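We modelled the chain as a single entity of 305 amino acids. Its sequence is:
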Amino acid sequence: MRRIFADGLGENGSFASFHPLVTFFYFGCVIGVSMFSMHPLFLAETLLAAVFYSLLLNGVKQFRFILFICLPILLITAVINPLFNHRGVTVLFYLNGNQMTLEAILYGLAAAAMLVSVVVWFSCFSRVVTSDKFIYLFGRILPVLSLVLSMCLRYVPLLKNRFREISEGQKCMGRDYGIRQPIRKLRQLAREISILIAWSLETSIETSDSMEARGYGLRGRTSFHIFKFTRRDGFTLVFIVLAAGLVFTGCAFGVNSIYYYPAVYAPHSWGVTLPVAAVYLLLLVFPAVIDLKGEYKWAKLSFET
């Protein structure tokens, strides 16, 4: 277990081995519900599940992403709302003559939690649904759009890895300037960015020529893929459809919503909300359970042999 969270499963997880249609449909359902949920219970479930699964996929290095990107987004969004929105009946204090209300703070926290959970779920999506899976799903229907989207999904980590490689190469050449030489440091940074841009442009031209030479986007073009829809994928897809159907039905009746203005008010009782939230939680933790179960079986098999 310690090794799993240290290195992360990445594309080697059991859930990532499912058919691309299953994984894509799952993330579509989860992200769709997360984007339109403002109920604190639903937000807590999706945020905690997203963070846990992200750590499971990426390891402890994902803490930096959560700590330096997600946490500032959460705090900034939560603080900005009460500064510009003064609605609400529960006045806590006054700031420059403007009332700071409890409802505005709670709404800011809810909106921030929703935004962060969606961002983290998208990071999990890009880790599981790789570019080859995305092209497999939409390559025949929308060949150009699927290629552009798949390239966009992998562009940020690709540029990050290339920039790290360029920086390491420059350091090996003795061009490593510390804080005491800020002018040279800025010049070196500009040189590395220039190299990165030139490298990216050259690679894009090579990619374009390669795809054109292989007849990408032409009518009647065939492609090789290793994905096969099995019985396991069918059962999993049925489970996701049933669970997501129950959650979507509850959301259609407003179970995942709550009113923050003028006062906090939940339109449905806990007796109606809890069953839907329980099914939603089961849907959220499903990939993590599949991955942990697969790792347990693999560890047990390795121990026996």
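As a brief sanity check on the tokenised model: The CA atoms of residues 190 and 296 lie 48 Å apart. The chain has two domains: 2-133+229-304, 155-213.
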